[in-house]
Give the backbone structure.
Amino acid sequence: MFREAIGGDPRLHPIRAREYFGEIFSDPSRTWDDLSRLRRSTRLPILLKGILHPDDARKAVDHGVAGVIVSNHGGRQLDGAIASLDALPGVVDAVGERTIVLADGFPGLDRGDACAIVVNEPTDDEPSLVTRERPSATRPPT
């Protein structure tokens, strides 16, 4: 769908890909300062989803998030984006000792059974992959 809307592969049309993404998925006027403002306005933990680059993970933590979620949103909208699994090691290396890192987008692990995949917890000696199962009462029908 995304490729169709921009006329092909995002790597061949990078400017149009960014423009289209901004039109439908985000407000291009948003900045990291908006995240800081949100952090100041609530005591609730903030998890930031859509992190695919170590620099963005560092910025998110620097702006007060409680954790990051490595995700390309299933590739449904960004079919030319890096796979979450490929982005995961860099993000964990960048912030894994400072905050919790969650991930999604792993075929077979997130098809309705696992509601989150915990990659690490800041107190862990070694990062690990742990799935958290939904209670069976809330599991969607197959």
